[in-house]
């Protein structure tokens, strides 16, 4: 797969970018940290023999979705509504400690399981993944042979999303009827 | 240090990213940051899908990532449209102030 040292460097960048997204005061900075995180994950996809998904990650996630975020942030002028420190004050403080505790429990349980020896790899041929054909052509064959019905359902989902966005985004002009 | 990275390393990284995303949803009150945290959680699930596809030598995990990406894109589009609609009426995107339905 990938050598441990570049893995740890990339993982450090990914975690730092995620923390930057979480703790940043300015929503635009959060969106840019999110781009950094998405690009590091795209590099992991390249290392995992998934080049097409890496490209889709960069174009769809780091491109389209984050641009949508930035567009809405700047449309609303919501860069700095409240700082993250102000956001959790007073009676809300209890839930902050509860949230941090729960996140530590999640990471702690996974760490405990990994230190116990991790995933049982007996009987798994881990060399098969390295020679797996993950070209766009092979992915398309898998998508349109085994996953045709989910693919069609995805189309319906996108249509429903378009209809929902158009209804939410519609504003009544002055004098227009309520219909 | 082990000589090669295996699936366990990816499980660890993915769970850390997921926990940070969950913390973002629970801690931040800015609705836009909330949606970004949800994206982070979906992204960590995608990373694990691809890592397991590599581990098991099976392409199905990579195909499922496309469905997750589609659902994430639809969710963000609808969610941001909702935020814009709420901002028009309440002039705020703080989720603690969106309590019109509270009894």
Based on DSSP secondary structure assignment, what is the total number of beta strands of chain B?
0
Query: Hey, roughly how much beta strand do the residues of chain B contain?
Result: under 5%
Structural class of chain B: mainly alpha
Which overall shape of chain A is indicated by the principal axes computed on the Cα atoms? extended
Structural class of chain A: mainly alpha
Low-confidence stretches of chain B: none
Radius of gyration of chain B: 18 Å
Quaternary structure annotation: heterodimer
Q: What is the number of helical segments of chain B per DSSP (H or I, 4+ residues)?
A: 3
**First-last Cα distance of chain B:** 57 Å
Task: Extract low-pLDDT stretches of chain A.
Answer: none
Explain the layout of strands and helices.
The complex is a heterodimer of chains A (179) and B (103).
Chain A: H1 4-23, H2 27-47, H3 51-76, H4 84-87, H5 93-115, H6 136-146, H7 148-169
Helix pairs in contact in A: 1-2, 2-3
Chain B: H1 7-27, H2 31-56, H3 60-90
């Amino acid at each position: 797969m990938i050598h441990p040292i570049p893995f740890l460097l990339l993982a450090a960048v990914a975690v730092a970018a995620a923390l930057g997204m979480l703790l940043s005061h300015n929503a635009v900075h959060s969106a840019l940290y999110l781009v950094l995180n998405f690009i590091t994950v795209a590099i992991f996809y390249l290392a995992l023999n998934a080049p097409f998904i890496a490209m889709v990650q960069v174009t769809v996630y780091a491109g389209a979705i984050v641009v949508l975020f930035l567009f809405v942030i700047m449309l609303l002028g919501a860069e700095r509504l409240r700082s993250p420190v102000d956001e959790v004050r007073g009676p809300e403080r209890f839930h902050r400690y509860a949230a941090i505790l729960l996140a530590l429990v999640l990471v702690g349980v996974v760490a405990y399981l990994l230190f116990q020896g991790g995933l049982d790899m007996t009987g798994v041929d881990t060399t098969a993944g390295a020679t797996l054909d993950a070209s766009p052509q092979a992915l398309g064959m898998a998508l349109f042979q085994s996953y045709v019905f989910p693919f069609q359902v995805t189309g319906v989902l996108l249509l429903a999303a378009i209809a929902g966005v158009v209804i939410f985004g519609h504003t009544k002009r002055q004098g227009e009827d309520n219909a | 240090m082990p000589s090669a990275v295996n699936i366990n390393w990816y499980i660890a990284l993915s769970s850390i990213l997921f926990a940070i995303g969950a913390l973002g949803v629970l801690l931040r009150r800015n609705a836009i940051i909330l949606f970004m945290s949800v994206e982070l959680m979906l992204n960590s699930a995608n990373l694990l899908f691809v890592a397991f596809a590599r581990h098991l030598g099976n392409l199905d995990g990579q195909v499922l990532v496309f469905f997750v990406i589609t659902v994430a894109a639809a969710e963000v589009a609808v969610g941001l449209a909702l935020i814009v609609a709420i901002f028009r009426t309440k002039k705020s995107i703080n989720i603690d102030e969106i309590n019109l339905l509270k009894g």
